[in-house]
Amino acid sequence: MAHTSQFCTFYLDKHLFGVELKSVQEVIRSLDVTRVPLAPGVVSGLINLRGQIVTAVDLRRRLELEPRAAGLPAMNVVVGSEDGAVSLLVDEIGDVVEVEETSFERPPETLRGAVREVITGVHKLNERLLLVLDTEKACQMTEEAVAAGQ
Amino acid sequence: MNDSDIVQDFLAESCENLDRLDRELVSLEKNPKDPAALASVFRTIHTVKGTCGFLGFNKLEKVAHVGENLLTRLRDGQLTLNPERTTALLGMVDAVRQMLKEIASSGQDGEVDYPELRETLTRLQTPVEGDAARAAATVAPPAPVEAAATTKKEEIPAPEPAAQTRAVEAADGSGKKSGDSQREPARVKIGGLLVEHGAAQAEDIDVGLQEQEKGDRRRLGEIPVASGRAKQEEDLTAIQVQEAKPGDAPAETIRVGVNVLDKLMILVGELVLARNQLLQISNTVEDASLQAVSQRMNLIATELQEQVMKTRMQPIGNIWSQFPRTVRDVALGCGKEVGIEMEGKETELDKTIIEAIKDPLTHLVRNSVDHGIELPEVRVKAGKPRAGRLILRAFHEGGQVNIEISDDGAGLNRERIRQKAVERGLITAEQAGRMTDREVLNLIFLPGFSTAEKVTNVSGRGVGMDVVKTNVERIGGNVDVQSVPGQGATVRVKIPLTLAIIPALVVTCSGERYAIPQVNLLELVRLDAEKAITAIEMVHGVPVYRLRGRLLPLVYLSRELRLAEGTRAGKNDDSVNIVVLQADDRQFGLVVDEINDTEEIVVKPLRKQLKTLKTFAGSSIMGDGKVALILDVLGLAQRSSVVGEARERTVSGKSAETAETAGDKQTFLLFAGLGDSRMAIPLSTLARLEEFPISQVEMSGSQWVTQYRGQILPLVRLAVVLEERRHRVRALEAPPAPDSGPIQVLVLNHEGRSFGLVVERILDIVEARADVKANATRPGVLYTVVIGERVTEVLDIPAILRGADSGSTQAGLTMKSAGVAN
Q1: pLDDT number for residue B236
Q2: What is the DSSP string of B758-771?
Q3: pLDDT-derived band at B79, boundaries 50, 70, 90
Q4: Interface residues on B facing A, Cβ-Cβ cutoff 8 A
Q5: Label partner for B474 (CA 20 to 30 A): which of A22, A35, B291, B723?
Q6: pLDDT tens digits, B317-374
């Protein structure tokens, strides 16, 4: 039996993304977000996660997708990163899936733009594709993103 | 314990030892014959050598070995410590330190094995002139000394107990040492001391030892004295030397990792937040038991917070202890003689602050030696002693720590500073002409300013003082310099005690709350809607407000932060709230929607995604569990160009301010006292202005009190303390009339107590010359002075407090008798 790994999956604009389960601290419903003026656009704000202040990154904005429809509450996927916990704002939480290493492939060369930057590859599931998110990269602010906020 | 644990322990211990070596070698240089210090140095090196041989760090062992050889001969008196040898030994300490760093990062002791250093150390073992005499005097080291030395040697490799080490600084192994962890050598044997001092001959001691063994109960030193073979005073000196070694019982301490303390601090921070939340809830719920519990919890949390803060406190001596070495190296490098003195070594500061001020202080110390203190010949010509003095002083004052670095050198040359500043284009010649002496001195903190004629490797590279200033300001402190030409200069650094929990003012802007650190806060101004229209004026489109005759630039927070305008929902009027802030040397008014309250907040740093934002200093969780951002006042000022990035505007804008501090002017809080009389108190005595509804005033005995910030605040009424005695009793009995309006209270602190002074009406804050004054006309008044063309009484706060205390006791008695009569 080949090596398997578990992914926590979520949806963003109908795309299925996944992060390795072991990096996920918890998944919670939307919390009060404190806006941070002048911050890069992808930073949605700060949330209080039981006394810990966590930066919320809006993945839709990070991936340059359309903004989330009004009234649709975001879900928080809290992941550990180099610099403490970060909350990723996603549309909807999917299942935890177990995938085999053999189903993994590098992203297609033709993939460009923000998505290319933040995914490490694709797992071919039976019925659809799972984009594997690189959480460190997703939380990293590009120079332009920072500049845009200033 | 596995290998890496052993290595970690070795590193932590060796780093502490090396720092001690620096100090000991420098002090040894002054007093080369101190056997105790020599023994201690020897022992330390020996420990390092022994352990690294055991752990297989051979290069390190080699270096330590040659050092030890040299030290052996020094200890045995065959050689004397001269500056060259000290330098070589210090070089060895540096090499060992370098290798320890290498071990910490890579686990190996590095590639370099310092052949030159080893050669120097070996060469220095050959006796030179000056060694001979002493060497001859102790040709054959007498037996007891040898015995003492060898036993000591044997004891060494066992790790010393960490008992006297302060718990906080120990375990991170990054070279923090402690000022009070001076582990002195084991008790030196008296016989050895006597021989070493030349007070007795080895055979006499041997005789003495034999006598003791036979049952002679006298002290060892007394035997040769009695038999006339040694002088009594020499015996006594030896005893003193022996007793100087602290053989005290080890203090009850344990080593705790700094990370554990940090975690503890974070948890206490959480607890403080939870406490704030609980207090907020308990105030809305009518439940006596809940309130009792939350009050108790409040007290415990406060106490816990204090205690945990204490564990993070470190004496400033920890960073000072390396300055003798710094001073020695710099002084030697530029041919000067400098003695260093320290006062207030035990003054404590938070660990994070200690780390932050280390570099600025080192720079200041080097600067003083390099620029401040003159060459010995110059000093002698000026009638000063050859050796310059550098004095470090630290003390607490008003919740801050003051650190002074003074030298008795030439002082700062104002003319040259002026000249240089103009040459460098930092100010115009015309500005330079107008500047006061103090302003001129502070020019040295401008970036790109350096007067050093020649660039030494120590200082004079044009960076430095401005970096010092920036670093100190980053942690909420400030720097000031004073100088008397020909007599020296003093640099004063003021810094807060801690950074983790700070008092802050909470304001609202566009529906979001922001916290402003109280250290930056000067005052609050509120303008009614009507008044605001006329009071806020425009200078070329830039809004300003006349604050007591001076123009205060206004910065709108919503604009600076690009918050949506017009979302002032929940704001019931159009009044303008101005928070007057101090950034660098400039003042500006920050216009916010609402001013909420002051609160103790726990500062949490921003994550890297937001670190680039200069406008925020951090974030904090408020009482309701939401997150609020903490404004960085300096960053905000820079963003809004109140303070130029390079501070070029501070120079021109400062004149007005400094002029008045230089004069005799004092700032007073003016208020209406009894009747319509004018009264004032110096603003410096005021802690806060408050307004309480009369319903919150309670009676404790005959004393008006109110609950304020979790404490009982006694309210002192002017009518009571200042009126004639016969009116006083009547006034005291009166409980507050329930239908009267809110009372205005000045909250004052005196000798650690807070109390509120109830006044009729608060009028203004004014600056007045306090030199035109007349004597007081009644008790409780310090003097009278003319402010704004009206005679104003300046109150004597201590006298009023005394009056209030005696008044309440007396009134209490009166009340009691009244009760009996009823």
Answers
A1: 55
A2: EESEEEEEEEEETT
A3: confident
A4: 269-270, 273-274, 512, 561-563, 604, 606-610, 612-613, 615-616, 619-621, 625-629
A5: A35
A6: 888 888 888 888 888 888 888 888 999 888 888 887 888 888 888 888 888 888 888 8
Question: If DSSP codes are grouped into helix, strand and coil, which group holds residue B177?
Answer: coil
In this structure, are residues B691 and B743 in contact, taking their beta carbons and an 8 Å threshold? yes
Long-range contacts: B211-216, Cβ < 8 Å, 24+?
Answer: none
Sign of the alpha-carbon dihedral angle for B563, B566, B567, B573: positive
Mean pLDDT (whole number) for B255-272? 82
Farthest-apart Cα atoms in chain A, separation: 52
Instruction: Using pLDDT thresholds of 50, 70 and 90, give the confidence band for residue B514.
Output: very high
Query: Which residues does residue B688 pair with via DSSP β-bridges, in sequence order?
Result: B747
Average pLDDT rounded to a whole number, residues B579-602: 86
pLDDT score, position B203: 62
* pLDDT > 60? residue B451: no
Across B210-224, B284-298, B648-662, B714-728, the highest mean pLDDT is recorded for B284-298
User: What residues contact residue B296 under an 8 Å CB cut-off, 6+ apart?
Assistant: none
Instruction: Pick the more confident residue, B702 or B249.
Output: B702
Contact criterion met (CB < 8 Å) for A43 and B562: no
Chain B residues whose beta carbon lies within 8 Å of the beta carbon of residue A41: none
The pTM assigned to this predicted structure is: 0.46
Contacting residues for B233 by C-beta, under 8 A, at least 6 apart: none
Which residues does residue B620 pair with via DSSP β-bridges, in sequence order? B628
Please, where are the H alpha helices in chain A?
A: 59-62, 113-118, 135-139, 143-149
Task: Name which of B610, B615, B628 is nearest A55 (Cβ-Cβ).
Answer: B610
Token pair listed for B804: 């209030």
Q: Give residues with Cβ within 8 angstroms of B515, minimum separation 6.
A: B504, B505, B506, B507, B599, B601, B620, B628, B629, B630, B631
DSSP lists the bridge partners of residue B397 as B400
Q: What is the DSSP letter of B403?
A: E
List of chain A residues whose C-beta atoms are within 8 Å of the C-beta of residue B612: 146, 150
- Cα B694 to chain centroid distance, Å, stands at 42
Tokens of B443: 């020019």
Residue pair B519/B476 in contact by the 8 Å Cβ criterion: yes
The long-range contacts involving B718-726, CB below 8 angstroms and separated by at least 24 positions, are: B718/B673, B718/B674, B718/B679, B718/B757, B718/B758, B718/B759, B719/B674, B720/B804, B720/B807, B721/B780, B721/B800, B721/B803, B721/B804, B721/B807, B722/B673, B722/B674, B722/B778, B722/B780, B722/B781, B722/B800, B722/B803, B723/B674
Across B47-56, B155-164, B749-758, least confident range: B155-164
Minimum distance, in Å, between the CA of residue A2 and any CA atom of chain B: 36
CB contact under 8 Å between B563 and A141, yes or no, is no
Instruction: Give the model confidence (pLDDT) of B547-571 as tens digits.
Output: 888 888 999 898 888 876 554 444 5
| B550-556 and B586-592 strand pairing | parallel
CB spacing of B608 vs A83 below 8 angstroms: yes
B172 CA: distance to closest CA in chain A (Å): 21
Contacts of A144 in chain B (CB under 8 A): none
Task: Please tell me whether residue B576 adopts helix, strand or coil conformation.
Answer: strand
Residue B662 pLDDT exceeds 60: no
Q: Which two tokens stand for residue B159?
A: 């790790």
pLDDT, position A119: 87
Question: The tokens of B654 are what?
Answer: 């400062």
